[in-house]
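Notes from hallway chat w/ T.B., transcribed later so I don't forget. T.B. wanted the structure written out for a chain they're using in a teaching module, and asked if we could keep both sequence and structure tokens in one place. Agreed to drop them here.
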Amino acid sequence: MSKTFSGTIIIIGYVNVKVHTYSWNEIESVHFYVDRIDQYNLTKPPIEWNINKRYITSFLSNHTLTVYGFYKDDYYWNESINETYLHLLYN
């Protein structure tokens, strides 16, 4: 993963997304979304996802990766990043 001079994030190949938390005891689940579609979720640590597939048939495409953390008391947080994703393999 790298940034261009314009600040665009480019991911080539696969990437391992990790989420760090102070205490897992308060978290119910963590969900990873690509372009607002739930792709992977966890209910226990470690909180990480290996993105290793194409999401669109185009060779180079822009996507939004969002991570949602859901707490046991109905509170949640999320964080998003826009990136250009290049994956050379077909799944």
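Follow-up for T.B.: The chain has a mean pLDDT of 77. Might be a good example for the class.
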